[in-house]
From TrEMBL:
GO terms for cellular component: cytosol. It catalyses: N(6)-dimethylallyladenosine(37) in tRNA + (sulfur carrier)-SH + AH2 + 2 S-adenosyl-L-methionine = 2-methylsulfanyl-N(6)-dimethylallyladenosine(37) in tRNA + (sulfur carrier)-H + 5'-deoxyadenosine + L-methionine + A + S-adenosyl-L-homocysteine + 2 H(+); N(6)-dimethylallyladenosine(37) in tRNA + (sulfur carrier)-SH + AH2 + S-adenosyl-L-methionine = 2-thio-N(6)-dimethylallyladenosine(37) in tRNA + (sulfur carrier)-H + 5'-deoxyadenosine + L-methionine + A + H(+); 2-thio-N(6)-dimethylallyladenosine(37) in tRNA + S-adenosyl-L-methionine = 2-methylsulfanyl-N(6)-dimethylallyladenosine(37) in tRNA + S-adenosyl-L-homocysteine + H(+). Its main location: cytoplasm. InterPro entries: Elp3/MiaA/NifB-like_rSAM (IPR006638), Methylthiotransferase (IPR005839), Methylthiotransferase_CS (IPR020612), Methylthiotransferase_N (IPR013848), Methylthiotransferase_N_sf (IPR038135), MiaB_methiolase (IPR006463), rSAM (IPR007197), rSAM_horseshoe (IPR023404). PROSITE patterns: MTTASE_N, MTTASE_RADICAL, RADICAL_SAM, TRAM. It comes from Devosia limi DSM 17137. Catalyzes the methylthiolation of N6-(dimethylallyl)adenosine (i(6)A), leading to the formation of 2-methylthio-N6-(dimethylallyl)adenosine (ms(2)i(6)A) at position 37 in tRNAs that read codons beginning with uridine. PANTHER family: CDK5 REGULATORY SUBUNIT-ASSOCIATED PROTEIN 1 (PTHR43020), MITOCHONDRIAL TRNA METHYLTHIOTRANSFERASE CDK5RAP1 (PTHR43020:SF2). [4Fe-4S] cluster 1 binds at residues 18, 54, 92. HAMAP family: tRNA_metthiotr_MiaB (MF_01864). It is an enzyme of class 2 (transferase). This is tRNA-2-methylthio-N(6)-dimethylallyladenosine synthase. Residues 399-461 form the TRAM domain. Binds 2 [4Fe-4S] clusters. One cluster is coordinated with 3 cysteines and an exchangeable S-adenosyl-L-methionine.
């Protein structure tokens, strides 16, 4: 009798870049699960390593090639031991550089962009066939097309036990790609045109997540608030209306979305913030610069004043709204005065947190052809000053929470025994003494102090009258 044995293989995915890549990595794991691939946290055990890459800044991109150098060594070790290692490069660098990666790093078996993830099992079969070829004939499998079919129609959903294992919070991509073409940004080229998933598909995925124990969903899109999915009746539904529909899912307790563009904060979405408790009062709304001249050169198509006006409207609907933002310093032509305008807008808004970057020239973007590049030392100096200001604002925001009672979704055991940790509505990490029985629900927590990047809380026990 021949022995039937399902041969499990180990998959290691290394994820760079934004939350969309984090989501995609899970979806790739889901696509490979039916083919016998199980995730491992130990790269040395892997039969297949996928690098899910980011192209947004030069440094992010370059990381891929240094990682491929290390993987080449790992592959040699595995082969010396009689085993093997397959290597795939996915994500935005794969999309942008395709063939170039295979040429620069022949160790790679597969190179494929974000729109090809549903074809991963097929590509893997092709790459495995290549294995048996003479090295001089071996070619990497490359797929950087933007196919007609919708990858989301073909990607399998995670099994319930997998969703349970992934935890109480989950990402859900509802919109992909970008039509905005900010002059510094590669996303419209690496992710393609803006596409929204149909409402039915989004709701079904959200229900599946909630059945798997998820309490908090973060809707994702490069321009998530430009979402315009169709419903069963063929009507176009915006993100505001989608939020109302998701709020109807029993068991879903928190909803977030990222990243938003100031131009797409429409009335329906702002009203949703007024009406829906499930929508968390924390919004990532990048402005990039406070100088109208630079905003124009960046092709953001709004002014600093218009951005402030949007924030005013949001705060009128939801007074406790906290904001986070993204900033680029040293865009070509940025003068001292332009930079002062950026500091000014930061001071005016008062952010709960912010991400800031030195401008990085990206090949193929309009910004790459602009003269008047800002010197590296000037960029560094501006970045430090900006970060000093933002850090002070973050510290002040954390401090303003002390003495308040906040609902905290308790997600995990804390760093120390007898402690648990979770997140406030404003996405702050909160630590408190308490039993692990608290995990899985939202509890009222009195904030009693702050520590670096987090809050310290005390469980508020309801006292019967
Ligand atoms: N869709 C989002 C941003 C996605 S990219 C939006 O419109 O705001 C994430 C952040 O990376 C951007 O907000 C920007 O601050 C930064 N970024 C993008 N391209 C960059 C570049 N070429 N150099 C430096 N930072 C960049
Ligand atoms: Fe990039 Fe601008 Fe699109 Fe954001 S809106 S992804 S910054 S092009
Ligand atoms: Fe990076 Fe692509 Fe996200 S370039 S930021 S991984 S969309």
């Amino acid at each position: 009798m021949t022995e039937m044995r399902q041969n499990t293989k180990k998959l290691f995915i290394k994820t760079y870049g934004c939350q969309m890549n984090v989501y995609d990595s899970d979806r790739m794991a889901d696509a490979l699960a039916p083919h016998g691939y199980e995730p491992t946290a130990d790269i040395a055990m892997a039969d297949l390593v996928l690098l899910n890459t980011c192209h947004i800044r030069e440094k992010a991109s370059e990381k891929v090639f240094s990682e491929l150098g290390r993987l080449k060594e790992l592959q040699s070790e595995r082969r010396a031991g009689g085993a093997d290692l397959m290597i795939g490069v996915a994500g935005c660098v794969a999309q942008a550089e395709g063939e170039e990666i295979a040429r620069r790093a022949p160790v790679v078996d597969m190179v494929f962009g974000p729109q090809a993830y549903h074809k991963l099992p097929d590509m893997l079969a092709k790459a495995e066939a290549q294995r048996h070829m003479h090295p001089s004939l071996k070619r990497a499998v490359i797929d950087t097309d933007f196919p007609e079919e919708d990858k989301f129609d073909h990607l399998p959903a995670a099994k319930k036990e997998v969703t349970i294992r992934r935890g109480l919070t989950a990402f859900l991509t509802v919109q992909e790609g970008c039509d905005k073409f900010c002059s510094f940004c590669v996303v419209p080229y690496t992710r393609g045109a803006e596409v929204s998933r149909p409402v039915r598909q989004v709701l079904a995925e959200a229900r599946g997540l909630v059945e798997g124990g998820v309490k908090e969903i973060t809707l994702l899109g490069q321009n998530v608030n430009a979402y315009h999915g169709v419903d069963e009746a063929g009507r176009t539904v915006g993100l505001g209306e989608l939020a109302y529909l998701l709020a109807g899912i029993e068991g879903l307790e928190r909803l977030r979305y990222t990243t938003s563009h100031p131009r797409d904060m429409d009335d329906a979405l702002i009203e949703a913030h007024r009406d829906l408790d499930i929508l968390m009062p924390y919004l990532h709304l990048p402005v990039q610069s406070g100088s109208d001249r630079i905003l124009k050169a960046m092709n953001r198509r709004h002014t600093g004043a218009e951005y402030l006006k949007v924030i005013e409207r949001i705060k009128a609907a939801r007074p406790d709204m906290a904001l986070s933002g993204d900033f680029i310093v040293g865009f070509p032509g940025e003068t001292d005065q332009d930079f002062e305008d950026t500091l000014k807008i930061i001071a005016d808004v008062g952010y709960a947190s912010a991400y800031s970057f030195k401008y990085s020239t990206r090949p193929g973007t309009p910004g790459a052809n602009l003269g008047d590049q800002v010197a590296e030392e000037v960029k560094s100096e501006r970045l430090w000053r900006l970060q000093d200001l933002v850090n002070a604002q973050t510290t002040a925001f954390h401090a303003s929470c002390v003495g308040k009672t906040l609902p905290v979704l308790i997600e995990r055991p804390g760093r120390m025994a007898g402690q648990v940790g979770g997140r406030s509505p404003y996405l702050q990490a909160v630590h408190l003494d308490g039993s692990t029985d608290l995990i899985g629900a939202i509890h009222q927590v009195e904030i009693i102090g702050t520590s670096t990047n987090s809050l310290v809380g005390r469980l508020k026990v309801a006292v019967a009258a």
